[in-house]
Write a structure and sequence with these properties.
Shape: elongated
CATH class: Mainly Alpha
Structural class: mainly alpha
CATH topology: Four Helix Bundle (Hemerythrin (Met), subunit A)
Distance between the termini: 28 Å
Number of strands: 2
Largest sheet: 2 strands, antiparallel
Number of domains: 1
CATH architecture: Up-down Bundle
Length: about 170
């Protein structure tokens, strides 16, 4: 088992800055490109990350710590951001994400103590019994998944333009 809270927080703290460096100031053609019908743009992904900060990670961690297996987590709507952010800029979304993440990492530090049992459990509506360490580890892996997704979506915008080099660019062949 590799989970270490301190190391998890290292990634969680860096995600907003990573996305800000990656996306701030890019033209809308970059921010809004996607991989085709029913896929997400970088704009959509950042909106999704905001929804996770509001309605997923900390509420579920709190439930594990306070209610254990007595209540099931509320389902998380992974698509709600698609209707909510049309009038915002990517910079506004990135700023909101950074603020929420800062608050959530502070909350995480306040909730978790050196004696916290990371094997404590809660009930996921789809997976059943899940452990605290799995919830926090998933939060980290989720961040990295979406950073990777954004990089892939941006790269695929030039998929046809790279010519024969596409054969050497794994990101365009995934």
């Amino acid at each position: 088992m590799n989970f270490q809270l301190k190391e998890a927080i290292e990634i969680l703290e860096r995600t907003p800055k990573t996305l800000s460096y990656m996306l701030t100031g890019l033209s809308n053609s970059w921010i809004n490109c996607n991989e085709g019908e029913a896929t997400w743009s970088a704009f959509d992904v950042v909106g999704h990350l905001i929804e996770g900060e509001k309605n997923n990670w900390i509420p579920r961690i709190e439930m594990i710590l306070t209610k254990g297996e007595t209540e099931t987590f509320s389902p998380f709507d992974r698509f709600s951001q698609l209707q909510q952010n049309a009038d915002k800029t990517i910079e506004e979304l990135l700023s909101e994400f950074a603020k929420l993440r800062r608050e959530n990492v502070e909350t995480l530090r306040r909730l978790i103590h050196t004696h916290t049992d990371f094997e404590k459990t809660g009930v996921h509506p789809e997976f059943g019994i899940v452990k605290l360490r799995e919830q926090i580890s998933t939060w980290v892996a989720h961040d990295l998944t979406h950073i990777s997704q954004i990089a892939r979506v941006l790269a695929k915008r030039y998929q046809e333009d790279v010519g024969p080099w596409k054969a050497y660019l794994r990101i365009l062949n995934s």
